[in-house]
Amino acid sequence: TNRSTDVVIIGSGGAGLSAAIEAKDAGKEVIVVEKMPMVGGNTLRATGGLNAAGTSSQAALGIEDSAASHYEDTMKGGYEKNDPALVEVLTEQAADAVEWLIELGADLSDVGRMAGASQDRSHRPTGGAPVGAHVVQVLREAAEEKGIEILTETTALEILVEDEEIKGIIAKDKNNNEFTIEASAVVVATGGFGANTTMVTEYDAALDGFGTTNHSGATGDGITMAVAVGAGLVDMVEIQTHPTVVPSNGYMITEAVRGNGAILINRDGERFVNELETRDVVSEATLEQEEQTAFLFFDEGIRESLSAIEGYIRQGFTTEADSIEELAEALGMNAENLAATVETYNSYVAAGDDKDFGRADMPRALENSKFYAIEVGPAVHHTMGGLRIDTLGQVLDSEGNSISGLYAAGEVTGGVHGGNRLGGNALTDLIVFGRLAGKSAAAGL
Ligand code: ADP
């Protein structure tokens, strides 16, 4: 049966739920449609943190930071391809996003550092519990408490426009019955297109055959629907790969394994890159190796430093051995080469100078039996391009004119991350721009 409301939100990830709460708090009736059986989208998979400068959590830990520094890091990380006006909004409103989540009941008291950041500003729950699932839970509970209706297993098919005015959407329920939801404002928060191989290779043919870390609903529907009503696109070719993903199942191995001291070796038992380089550089270097994968190599000391590794071992991702030679054998690798590589690397650790690749941070020598390896390769991780928006979350056409009544936020949009997204900036993007889009939709901007 057909429905009617003030604001329709397509997608129930971090961006859609934030938009829904703000629109409802502004006094509007809201319906969220979500095509999957559960809410949360890719946001559920976010592990790193939520980047923000000048928060109460940082203050409690004595960390001094500024939005200006967050801005500079984000622009530099994105190779200055980012839209400066959007990055200004992102970084200036990040702290308020953290306080808003804390007020809704979130625990963001642990603050750590991610690659490309010049200060500790990645917020997550105490003990480093997965941040995305926690944030989704807090937002979902807040939405339910406020009486926001979330229709799961309901797919938006089309945005309705009449006489240049947004009229709502056409959706289908799980029995494939189509119906209309009338509304004067639509917020597109459908996430990225990392799981849509056709769309990915259309924009970057070099990614043919890549796996993905994304949930299966990340198919770019919002891009297709919004373009059909005149939306412009930016940066579609900017697709981020994550360098350390288990090839057989798309499971992402956290950056922290390298951060805590692991090295990457190829099938000749040799290092081939500064392991702490940006994601794109490490991914590219891996693709140049035999079989286009590599092995994360670490020892018992690193295992003990990082609880996430226990999970990898439990899930059977690791090959382990009591000596370097045995491990090399198990991997079908030249044992002498691997032993020599590790010996050389350990001498660099002792000297504090990586003469081969200039790796700046080498926190641990690889010398404690047992030894471990995980085969990893790059997979599509985050699509940085998408719908063109302004600083209020309104969708723009390709000439930069706003499309009245149409808003977007989160991974479906482009311009915030430029050529390379920094770890921890995705959650900031979702919450900051989700809230803005919800407020703008309610205000009829
Ligand atoms: P973001 O991080 O930008 O919030 P997410 O991937 O976390 O994005 O969430 C986007 C959500 O939108 C996902 O749960 C996804 O299943 C949902 N979605 C995608 N396309 C549609 C569609 N056509 N109709 C309804 N929901 C959709």
Q: Tell me the overall shape.
A: elongated
Strand content: 15-25%
Helix content: 25-40%
The assembly state of the depicted protein chains is: single chain
The number of helices is: 15
Give me the Rg, rounded.
23 Å
Structural class: alpha/beta
Distance between the termini: 29 Å
Ions, cofactors, ligands: which are bound? adenosine-5'-diphosphate
Largest sheet: 6 strands, mixed
Strand order of the largest sheet: 7-3-2-11-20-19
Rounded mean pLDDT score? 95
Structure description:
Belongs to the FAD-dependent oxidoreductase 2 family. FRD/SDH subfamily. Keywords: FAD, Flavoprotein, Oxidoreductase. Its cofactor is FAD. This protein is an alpha/beta fold and 445 residues long. The chain is built from 15 helices and 20 strands. The strands form five sheets. The protein has a six-stranded mixed beta sheet with strand order 7-3-2-11-20-19, with helices on one face. A hairpin with a 2-residue loop joins strand 8 and strand 9. Helix 13 packs across helix 14. The model has no long low-confidence stretch (mean pLDDT 95). Bound molecules: adenosine-5'-diphosphate. Adenosine-5'-diphosphate (ADP) is lined by residues 10-16, 33-36, 41-43, 155-156, 189-191, 217-218, 221, 410-412, 430.
